[in-house]
Amino acid sequence: MFSPDKFRSHFANHQDFAKASKFEVKIAAPSGAPDLTSLAKDLRFQCENAELPGYTINTVDNRLYGVPNPVASTASFGDITLTFICAGDMWEKKFFDRWMDIIIPINNYNPRYKNSYASPSIEINQYSEFVDDVNQELTASSQSRYSAILFEAFPVSMAPLSLNWGDDGILKLAVTFKYEYWTPGGTGSPTIQRPESMPNGS
Question: Is the pTM of this model over 0.85?
Protein backbone atom coordinates (compact mmCIF):
# COMPACT_ATOMS: atom_id res chain seq x y z
CA MET A 1 0.00 0.00 0.00
CA PHE A 2 1.24 3.46 -0.89
CA SER A 3 2.20 5.51 2.15
CA PRO A 4 2.46 9.33 1.80
CA ASP A 5 4.64 9.44 4.91
CA LYS A 6 7.10 6.94 3.47
CA PHE A 7 7.11 8.83 0.19
CA ARG A 8 7.96 12.11 1.93
CA SER A 9 10.50 10.39 4.15
CA HIS A 10 12.18 8.81 1.15
CA PHE A 11 12.81 12.16 -0.55
CA ALA A 12 13.69 13.84 2.74
CA ASN A 13 16.47 11.27 3.12
CA HIS A 14 17.74 12.26 -0.32
CA GLN A 15 17.69 16.05 0.15
CA ASP A 16 14.19 16.60 -1.22
CA PHE A 17 13.92 17.23 -4.99
CA ALA A 18 16.40 18.33 -7.67
CA LYS A 19 15.37 21.70 -9.10
CA ALA A 20 15.81 22.44 -12.80
CA SER A 21 16.49 26.10 -12.00
CA LYS A 22 19.48 25.44 -9.71
CA PHE A 23 22.44 25.25 -12.07
CA GLU A 24 25.52 27.02 -13.33
CA VAL A 25 27.65 26.61 -16.47
CA LYS A 26 31.38 27.32 -16.59
CA ILE A 27 33.02 27.54 -20.00
CA ALA A 28 36.78 27.56 -20.56
CA ALA A 29 37.90 29.55 -23.59
CA PRO A 30 39.75 27.77 -26.40
CA SER A 31 43.55 28.03 -26.46
CA GLY A 32 43.45 29.71 -29.86
CA ALA A 33 41.63 32.73 -28.43
CA PRO A 34 43.44 34.04 -25.33
CA ASP A 35 41.45 37.28 -25.71
CA LEU A 36 38.30 35.35 -24.78
CA THR A 37 39.61 33.87 -21.52
CA SER A 38 38.39 36.58 -19.15
CA LEU A 39 35.10 36.99 -21.02
CA ALA A 40 34.33 33.26 -20.87
CA LYS A 41 34.15 33.41 -17.08
CA ASP A 42 31.26 35.89 -17.24
CA LEU A 43 29.10 33.66 -19.43
CA ARG A 44 27.96 31.82 -16.29
CA PHE A 45 25.91 34.89 -15.33
CA GLN A 46 23.94 34.78 -18.56
CA CYS A 47 23.35 31.08 -19.24
CA GLU A 48 19.60 30.82 -18.70
CA ASN A 49 19.02 27.33 -20.04
CA ALA A 50 21.29 24.28 -20.13
CA GLU A 51 21.27 20.50 -20.39
CA LEU A 52 23.03 17.74 -18.52
CA PRO A 53 24.44 15.53 -21.29
CA GLY A 54 23.12 12.10 -22.12
CA TYR A 55 25.01 8.88 -22.73
CA THR A 56 24.21 6.32 -25.40
CA ILE A 57 25.69 2.83 -25.66
CA ASN A 58 25.45 1.61 -29.24
CA THR A 59 25.12 -2.11 -29.85
CA VAL A 60 25.77 -4.67 -32.55
CA ASP A 61 24.09 -8.02 -32.94
CA ASN A 62 26.30 -10.96 -32.08
CA ARG A 63 24.80 -14.00 -33.77
CA LEU A 64 26.45 -17.38 -34.20
CA TYR A 65 23.25 -19.37 -34.08
CA GLY A 66 19.67 -18.69 -33.11
CA VAL A 67 18.40 -15.37 -31.85
CA PRO A 68 20.78 -12.38 -32.28
CA ASN A 69 22.40 -11.33 -29.03
CA PRO A 70 22.99 -7.56 -28.73
CA VAL A 71 26.35 -6.58 -27.23
CA ALA A 72 27.88 -3.21 -26.44
CA SER A 73 29.82 -1.68 -29.30
CA THR A 74 30.61 2.03 -28.93
CA ALA A 75 29.61 5.00 -26.80
CA SER A 76 28.17 8.16 -28.31
CA PHE A 77 27.20 11.56 -26.95
CA GLY A 78 24.54 13.90 -28.27
CA ASP A 79 24.91 17.64 -28.78
CA ILE A 80 23.91 20.04 -26.02
CA THR A 81 22.36 23.47 -26.37
CA LEU A 82 23.02 26.39 -24.01
CA THR A 83 20.86 29.50 -24.07
CA PHE A 84 22.28 32.86 -23.04
CA ILE A 85 20.48 36.07 -22.05
CA CYS A 86 21.72 38.88 -24.29
CA ALA A 87 23.18 41.99 -22.63
CA GLY A 88 22.68 45.48 -24.01
CA ASP A 89 26.08 45.59 -25.70
CA MET A 90 25.57 42.09 -27.20
CA TRP A 91 29.00 41.01 -25.97
CA GLU A 92 27.97 37.34 -25.72
CA LYS A 93 26.93 37.34 -29.40
CA LYS A 94 30.29 38.89 -30.32
CA PHE A 95 31.99 36.27 -28.12
CA PHE A 96 30.51 33.37 -30.06
CA ASP A 97 30.97 35.16 -33.39
CA ARG A 98 34.66 35.32 -32.55
CA TRP A 99 34.80 31.68 -31.37
CA MET A 100 33.14 30.37 -34.53
CA ASP A 101 35.46 32.50 -36.65
CA ILE A 102 38.38 30.75 -34.93
CA ILE A 103 36.92 27.38 -35.98
CA ILE A 104 36.31 28.34 -39.61
CA PRO A 105 37.62 31.86 -40.39
CA ILE A 106 35.20 33.91 -42.42
CA ASN A 107 37.99 35.30 -44.61
CA ASN A 108 38.86 31.92 -46.17
CA TYR A 109 36.49 29.27 -44.70
CA ASN A 110 39.35 26.85 -44.09
CA PRO A 111 38.85 24.85 -40.85
CA ARG A 112 41.62 25.20 -38.29
CA TYR A 113 43.13 22.49 -36.13
CA LYS A 114 40.85 21.34 -33.34
CA ASN A 115 43.37 21.95 -30.55
CA SER A 116 43.14 25.68 -31.30
CA TYR A 117 39.34 26.02 -31.16
CA ALA A 118 38.04 23.35 -28.75
CA SER A 119 37.33 24.33 -25.15
CA PRO A 120 39.35 22.29 -22.63
CA SER A 121 36.17 21.88 -20.59
CA ILE A 122 32.61 22.98 -20.08
CA GLU A 123 31.37 22.28 -16.56
CA ILE A 124 27.64 22.08 -15.82
CA ASN A 125 26.79 22.06 -12.11
CA GLN A 126 23.40 21.27 -10.60
CA TYR A 127 22.84 22.68 -7.11
CA SER A 128 20.60 21.80 -4.20
CA GLU A 129 18.72 24.10 -1.85
CA PHE A 130 19.37 21.63 0.97
CA VAL A 131 22.21 22.30 3.40
CA ASP A 132 23.49 19.37 5.45
CA ASP A 133 24.52 21.48 8.44
CA VAL A 134 22.70 24.67 9.40
CA ASN A 135 26.03 26.00 10.72
CA GLN A 136 27.73 25.33 7.40
CA GLU A 137 28.67 28.32 5.30
CA LEU A 138 26.44 28.41 2.23
CA THR A 139 28.77 28.23 -0.75
CA ALA A 140 28.48 26.93 -4.30
CA SER A 141 30.73 23.95 -3.50
CA SER A 142 28.64 22.98 -0.47
CA GLN A 143 25.45 23.02 -2.54
CA SER A 144 26.78 21.23 -5.62
CA ARG A 145 25.06 17.87 -6.02
CA TYR A 146 25.93 16.85 -9.56
CA SER A 147 28.47 17.97 -12.12
CA ALA A 148 29.09 17.02 -15.74
CA ILE A 149 32.34 18.00 -17.44
CA LEU A 150 32.43 18.10 -21.23
CA PHE A 151 35.84 17.79 -22.88
CA GLU A 152 37.00 19.25 -26.19
CA ALA A 153 33.73 21.11 -26.78
CA PHE A 154 33.11 23.73 -29.44
CA PRO A 155 30.09 25.57 -30.85
CA VAL A 156 28.65 24.26 -34.09
CA SER A 157 25.48 26.33 -34.39
CA MET A 158 24.09 29.67 -33.26
CA ALA A 159 20.34 30.06 -33.63
CA PRO A 160 19.18 33.22 -35.40
CA LEU A 161 17.97 36.10 -33.24
CA SER A 162 14.49 37.28 -34.18
CA LEU A 163 13.94 41.07 -34.12
CA ASN A 164 10.41 42.47 -34.00
CA TRP A 165 9.05 46.00 -33.44
CA GLY A 166 6.04 44.49 -31.72
CA ASP A 167 8.09 42.52 -29.18
CA ASP A 168 9.90 44.28 -26.34
CA GLY A 169 11.27 41.06 -24.81
CA ILE A 170 14.88 40.21 -24.00
CA LEU A 171 16.89 38.50 -26.71
CA LYS A 172 18.09 34.94 -26.01
CA LEU A 173 21.01 33.37 -27.88
CA ALA A 174 20.92 29.56 -28.28
CA VAL A 175 24.28 27.92 -29.00
CA THR A 176 24.69 24.22 -29.80
CA PHE A 177 27.93 22.42 -28.88
CA LYS A 178 29.59 19.20 -29.91
CA TYR A 179 32.19 17.56 -27.69
CA GLU A 180 34.43 14.49 -27.51
CA TYR A 181 32.99 12.98 -24.34
CA TRP A 182 31.91 13.87 -20.81
CA THR A 183 32.48 12.55 -17.31
CA PRO A 184 30.55 13.08 -14.06
CA GLY A 185 32.25 14.94 -11.24
CA GLY A 186 31.54 16.93 -8.11
CA THR A 187 30.25 16.02 -4.65
CA GLY A 188 28.96 12.48 -4.33
CA SER A 189 29.88 11.43 -7.89
CA PRO A 190 32.09 8.42 -8.63
CA THR A 191 35.74 9.21 -9.13
CA ILE A 192 36.31 8.97 -12.87
CA GLN A 193 39.66 9.86 -14.36
CA ARG A 194 40.01 11.40 -17.79
CA PRO A 195 40.86 8.45 -20.07
CA GLU A 196 44.25 8.19 -21.77
CA SER A 197 42.50 7.27 -25.02
CA MET A 198 39.27 9.04 -25.93
CA PRO A 199 36.10 7.06 -26.73
CA ASN A 200 36.29 7.92 -30.42
CA GLY A 201 39.88 6.74 -30.67
CA SER A 202 41.33 10.19 -31.40
Answer: no
